[in-house]
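Hi W.,

Here's what went into the run:
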Amino acid sequence: MLSLGSGGGKSTKPSFVSYVTPEDMKIKEKEEGLRSKHPYLLPGEVVFCSANHVLKYTQEDASQRGVYGTLLCTNFKIAFISGESASQETAPPFRNKLLSENDIPLTCVDHIYGVSDEKKKLIIGGQVKSKYPSKLIIQCKDLRVFHFSLTYAKEEEAKKIFQGIVHHSLEPKSLKCVFAFSYCETASTSQASRKSSLTLMFETKEDWSMELGRTKGNCKVSSANEDYAISEKLPQFFVVPFAVSDDDILRFLGKGIPFWCWSHHSGCALFKMACLPTIQEDGISQKYMHRMLDAVTQDQLCPVKIEDLSSCLPALQDLQLSYNKFKQLFLIDSTTEFWVSDMKWFSSLENSGWLEIIRQCLMKAVEIVDYLESAHTSVLIVEEHCSDLCCVLSSLVQIMLDPYYRTRSGFQSLIQKEWVAGGHSFLDRCNHLYQKEKEAPAPVFLLFLECVWQLLQQHAPAFQFSETYLTVLSDSINIPLFSTFLFNSQHHRDTAMKSGHPEAQRSPLNFPSVWDWSLQFDCKAQSLFTNPLYVEKPIQDKALRKTSHQKHQRQLSLPNTLSKPSPRKGFFKEETDNLKKIFLGKRISKWLNPTESSKELYESWQRKPLDYQGLLLPYLDGPAVQVWMQRYLRWVPEAQIFGGGSITTVNRVLELASEIQDLQKEVERRSCRMNSSIAWKQVYSGPPLSARLSSFPFTATHAWSFKPAIPSSIRQGLGSVSSLADKEDDDSQGSGVL
Amino acid sequence: MEEAPRFPGESIKAIAKDVMYICPFTGAVSGTLTVTDYKLYFKSLEREPPFILDVNLGVISRLETIGVQSHGENSCGMEIVCKDMRNPRFAYKQEEQSKLEIFENLTKHAFPVSNNLPLFAFLYKEKFPVDGWKVYDPVAEYKRQGLPNESWTISKVNSNYELCDSYPALLVIPTSIKDEDLRRVVAFRAKHRIPVLSWIHPESQATITRCSQPLVGPSDKRCKEDEKYLQTIMDANAQSHKLTIFDARQNSVADTNKAKEGGYESESFYTNAELTFLEIPNIHVMRESLRKLKEITYPVIDEAKWLSNVDSTHWLEYIRLLLTGAVRIADKLESGKTSVVVHCSDGWDRTAQLTSLAMLMLDSYYRTIKGFEVLIEKEWISFGHRFAVRVGHGDVNHTNSERSPLFVQFIDCVWQMMRQFPAAFEFNELFLITILDHLYSCLFGTFLYNSEQERVKAELHTKTVSLWSYINSQPEEFTNPFYVNYENHVLYPVASLRHLELWVDYYVRWNPRMRPQMPVHQNLKELLVIRSELQKKVDELHREASTRSLSSSSDRGSSPSHSATPVHTTV
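Here's what came out:
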C-alpha cells in the first residue's frame, strides 16, 4: 500500500464503524446484552439458529475494522443484526422492504468459504461439520461478499450457526422448503393476490387473443392443453397456425409444433419449436414436419426460415462456465486484490468469454430481425426444448422490433409470454434447490437481461425502464418468494401451489409475482425504475401506424406468387431439406451462414435518423459491448465514483423535471391568485440529492469514506513494454543539458 | 461541377477528376479530388447523398505511394497517413498530368514548413465576433487564485525570456527569493526551468509548483539555493511541515538521467521533502502506444480479440497512470494540505499533463469552457509544451522521434474524467474533439510554436486567429446540458481499468459502424427549453403582480422571486 497522507483531518469515519480489539470485548458484551435487537421477520419466517458476538468486517489489509452483532439463519435468509444501527444519515436512501442491508436470502448464497489458520477453503454442503472455521466468507449471487468472524462467539453458538447456514443454503432441499410456501400460508391472501394490471400474464385465452390482436397475427389460440391434458411442459393456452390441429399437437406431445411468438406488420411472424424426438421413423416425422411448415407458410403467406440454435450458440454448460469465470472478476476480497486484478482486467474479461456470448446472442437476434424486417420471412427458432436460448432470442427479437416491449409493462408481459408461459425451467436453471444431479444450472435469464442492458445503454431513450430496474430484477431471481422464478413450468407451479397447502380443499396458495413490485419497494423507490431519458411515443405516431397496417393488409390480399415472386419456392424447399437433415439427426453445424444481409440491414438502418419508437439494433463491434457496471461493481468500494457515475445524468433530468413541475404549479398559482403575493414555498419532492449520488441507489454510501482510491500496484504489470522505455528520456537528446 | 467549399483565405491549388477513393468501410468510389492550401476535398456523385471526404492537410503525417491491384486502370495509389487515426487511400491512372500535379501540390502544401511556405493559420481570414486571444490574461488568472499574496509574487524577471526561454514572461515565485539566488537556481535546473507556482489552494495555501529536473549528475552535486528555494515553497504553506516532490518519471529512468547531468532531489539534502516517483514512461513509449492503437482500430476491428488488443497497446494503462498520479497530487493538496513540486525531465510534457489534471480535479473553474481554455493556455501553451515539435506542424519529417501525442493523452484523461462525472463539466465531448482536431489542423494559431517567446516573435496574436474565437462565438454547441456546478467539490476519478474506456468517439470515429451515440441530451434540451419558458412566465406574472401590488397597496415587498429555482444546482 502506498502511504496516503490522509492520517488526520479528512478521514470522516462512518459513525457505525468501531475499532474493537478482543480486549475491549468484555465491555462490549455488557452493552450489547442491554440492547439486543430483534430481527425483522416476514410472515411465516422462523429463526433456525443464531449466534451473538459475531464480527462483520471488511477485509482491510492491516486494520481489522468491523461491527459486532448477531448472525441468524432463518428459513428465508441469513441475517446479521448489529446493535449499532446505521444512523439516519448513512442508511441507504432506498431500501428493499423484504430485506435489509445485511440480509442474504438462502437462495442468494453462491459460495461459502471458511478460513481457518489463514487458509481459505471452499465449504461444501453434505459433510458432517464437527469443526467450524474461525471466519466465514459468504459470496452472494448478487455479488455481495460478506466476511464474518466467529472467533469471539460462544463455541456452541458458532458451531450451530455454521452448521445451520451450511445446511440451509448449501444442501439439497425439497421445493416445499422454499420460503414462499411458509410465507403464503401465513401472509394474508389479499396481499398476495394483488396484480399489476398492465402486465399480461398469458395464463388465459384472453391474454393470448389480445396479443394476437395487437400484432395482427394470423393464427389461432389453442386450448388443446387445457388442464395440461397433453403436456405438463406447455402452458394451458398457446397460439399456433390455423392448420395445426389438436391431433397434431397430441402426436408428439407438443414437440415439433410451431408456437407463435409475435407477428411483424408485414405479415411474417416469429415462431419457436421444440425438436422432435429423434427416434421417430423418418417417413413419419418428415411428413409431419412438412405439414407443420406448410401450416406456418400458409397462414403467413410468406416463406419461413429455420434457425436451429444448437448449431450456432454456446451450450448451457459453456454459459455457466463462462459466467462463473466472469463473476469471479467482481468477487473481490480486499483492496490489494482489487488493484492487482485491475492490471489484468482486459485479459481476464476476454478470457471469461461472457461478453462474447452476449455479442453472439445479440448477433443471432439481429439475423432473425433481418429475416423478419428486410426479407419479410417468417422465422422458426428451433431448440431441443425451446425453453432456454430460444427464450433469449425470441424476446430479444421482439424488443428490437416492437417498441411496446421497451415499456415496463410490455417488457414484463414479454417475460411472462416467452419465459414463464414458455416454460423456461427457472427452478432448475437457478438451482434454487441445490440439487446437483438435476439438469445443469445456467444463467440463461441473466444472459437475457445482460443483452437487454446492452441495448439499453446503447439506446437509452428507447426504453421506459431504467438500468436500476434491470439490476433489481436480476436480484429478484434470488429471492425465493416469487412464483415467476420458482418453477419449471406453469403446470409445475399449479400443482405445487395446490398440494403445498395442508388442506387441499381450500383454495390453492397464491404466490406473489415478481411484478408485484410493491411487495419489495415503496412508490419512491419504484420511481427509480423509470428511465427519465425515455422518449415517449409521439401522438401522431398512431395515425402513421394505422396506414402502414392497412398497406400490409392490402399486400396480404394479393395472390401469394405476386407478392413474393422468386425467393419463396427455392428458399422454402432448401430450408425444408435442411430441416429434414436436422431431424434425421445429422446436424450440419455451419449450414447457416451468418449472412452479409445483416450488414445491409445495419446500413439502411443507420442511414435513417434513429427512431426510438422504431427498429432498434445493437452495436456489436468490439468496444460497443460493455460490462454492466451497475450490477457488477456496485458493491466494490474501490470502484465507486464519489459524486459521479451515470446516475448523475439521470439525477439531473429528474431534478429538471421536478423544477418544471414546480414552475408549472407556480404559474397556476399565480394566474389564479393574481392579487395576493404570499411567498411561495418551494417543495422538493424527491429525496435529498446527495443521497442519490450512488451508482446503485439501494446501497448505503457510509462504508466508503471520501478518500480517493489510489492504485497500489503502479509498478506491477508495466514491465518491459519495449526498449523504448529505456531510451533516452524525453528531450535530453541532442542538445546537452544546460 | 461545383467547387469545393472554402474558408476565407483558402485557395484551390489543383483539381483532378476520376480519382478513386478506396473506402475501407463502404468500398471504392470515384470522384473529383481538390487540393487547396488547407485541405484535401474528395467528392463523388456516385452515391446518394454524394460521398464527401474532407481531410485538412495539417493532419497528414506522411504521404506514401502504394501499388494498387484489383482496381482496373487505376494502378497507382496513394496512402495518406494521418495523425488522427486514419489512412485514406486513393487510386488513379498512371501517366496523367493532372494527377501528377495534384499530388505534387499535396506534398507541397501538406508540409508548408519544410517547403518554406507559411502555415495556413497565417492565411486564414475568418472574422469572429469574439477575440479568443483575450481569453487568457495571466495577471487576471493569478488574481483569481488570490495572487500575489505575502508569500508569492508575480515576477517580471523573465520578461525578455532571458532567464528561461521556454517559460512565459510572467512567473509566480516566492516573494523572499533574492535575484542572485534565483540565478543559481536557474543554473541548477534543466533548461533553466525553475520551480514556479501553478496553483494555490484557496484555503490551505498549499501550492502546486512545477519545474524541470535538478542537475544533480553522477557526482551528487548540490545547490544550497535550490534547497533553500524549495524550503521557501514549503514555508509558504503554514499547514504542513512537509513538501512532496512528485517525479513523474520511472525511478530507473531518473537514475539513468542522474548518470548524465540530470537527476532528482535527494531526500537527505532537501530536508522535509519526500520524493515520489509516479513511474510514467517517456514520450517514445506513448508514441508507440498510440501507433499500436491505430493498428487495432483502423480500418477494421477484430471483435473477438478486441479486449486483448486494447490491452496490448497499453494506452489505457498509461491513462490510468496519469490519472493516478494526478489524483495523488490532488489528494496531497486537498487532504494532506501539503504543497507539491512536480517535475519530469524538462517539465514540459508529463509535468504539464499532471499539473493540469490535478488542477482540473481541484478547481471547478477549470471545468468550465472558459476555465478549461485558460488551463490549456496556461499550463500547456505558456509554459512551453513544445507543440510544434511534438505535433510536427507542417513538417515533412514524420520519423522525428520528438513527436509524441502527449496532449492527446491529456485530453483523453479529461474525457475519462468527464465520463465518470458526466455533470461536472460545462463542456461536452465535441469541445474536446474540436480541440484535438485543431491541434493538428493549423487553421488557428493557438497550438503553433513551442514557446511564448517564439509566438511573440511570430506575432501570432495579430496574424492568426485563436481557436477560442471560434469556440466562444458559439458556446451552445460545446455546452454540456447536464452541467451542474460542483463548486468546491474535488473530483477524484477512479483510476481503475474497470472504469477506463477507449474513447471510441474519437479514436474510432471514422468507422461508420461506430456511429456516435444519439444525443441522449435531446430529451434534456427539451426540458431545458420548457423550463426557461415557464421561468419566463413566472417572472412575467411576478412582475405583473408586483406592479399591481405597488399600485393597490403597500405590500411588505417580500420578493418571491427566490422561488424561481437556480439554473445551476449545487451538489
